[in-house]
Specification:
The protein has about 250 residues and is α/β, with parallel strands linked by helices. It has helices at about 1-5, 35-45, 90-100, 120-130, 140-150, 155-165, 165-180, 180-190, 215-220, 230-245; strands at about 10-15, 25-30, 45-55, 60-70, 75-85, 110-115, 135. Strands 1-2-5-4-3-6-7 form a 7-stranded mixed β-sheet, sandwiched between helices.
């Protein structure tokens, strides 16, 4: 139906047979609408946010989504999939089809991937999209940071470091963190600055996002549809994507 009503789109359905001679059962599906492909390639920044959320219907599963950022910094749905579980194998499967759909210029114009480091996603990005830069969502880093280090002032110092526009201001913020907690300072230094500190990020991307909030906004938009049966929900997701693009 997707290919018939949206020529040029990509829709990949995968099924599995659980017993010899049995009927195939739905396992996962990937969809990238033609309008989304064309809009991303001609009008979006080279930024792709990746996120997975659980479906709340009787059959479970997860929704994997790729969301980009358009010229006015609004979010732009690019592709989505329904899969049985979120792990490295399903993310590799998703990214392979995403690359096939819209990754024709990756060697010339690499993407910047923004994510909250879901299960298996970092490894999948390194395997399927090695030329892309990767930013980690600072909100999720801060959540893990605050679980380990309880000092009151560290939260403000963290954001000061993450948003610092240059290396000098970044070092000033980091020195404040070190003065408050040497362990917190060392913990942050274990991560590449280019994955969470704005001043060290790839300047060719031209995007100020250091969180995956724009992907979370899409998840909030489709929250009610997450309760619908998987295959029926596909039409809801498609309509939601079209509504976002029209508005």
């Amino acid at each position: 139906m997707v290919l018939r009503t949206n020529p040029g789109s990509m829709a990949i359905l995968r099924s599995e047979v659980t017993r010899l001679g049995g009927l195939p059962h739905f396992q996962r599906i990937f969809i990238c609408l033609e309008a989304c492909k064309r809009g991303f390639l001609t009008g979006c920044r080279p930024v792709v946010g990746l996120d997975g959320c659980h479906l709340k219907g009787p059959y479970g599963g997860v929704l994997l989504a790729a969301i980009s950022v358009e010229a006015n910094m609004g979010y732009f749905p690019l592709a989505y999939a329904i899969a049985e579980i979120e792990n490295q194998e399903t993310w590799c499967w998703f990214l392979e089809h995403l690359k096939e759909a819209v990754g024709r210029d990756l060697e010339i114009k690499p993407w910047c991937i923004i994510s909250d480091r879901q299960k298996g996603l970092v490894s999948a990005i390194q395997e399927i999209l090695p030329s892309c830069t990767h930013r980690c969502c600072c909100h999720h880093i801060l959540q893990n940071f605050q679980k380990r280090f309880k000092q009151t002032g560290l939260r403000d110092f963290f954001w000061e470091a993450a948003k610092a526009p240059n290396a000098q201001e970044f070092q000033i913020a980091m020195s404040k963190i070190r003065a408050e907690s040497g362990e917190a300072y060392e913990w942050l230094n274990l991560m590449e600055a280019s994955t969470w500190a704005f001043h060290a990020m790839d300047k060719n991307v031209k995007c100020e996002h250091i969180t995956s909030n724009f992907v979370e906004s899409f998840n909030a938009w489709i929250d009610e549809e997450r309760y619908v049966i998987d295959l029926v929900s596909l039409s809801f997701y498609q309509c939601t994507v079209i509504k976002i693009m029209v508005s």
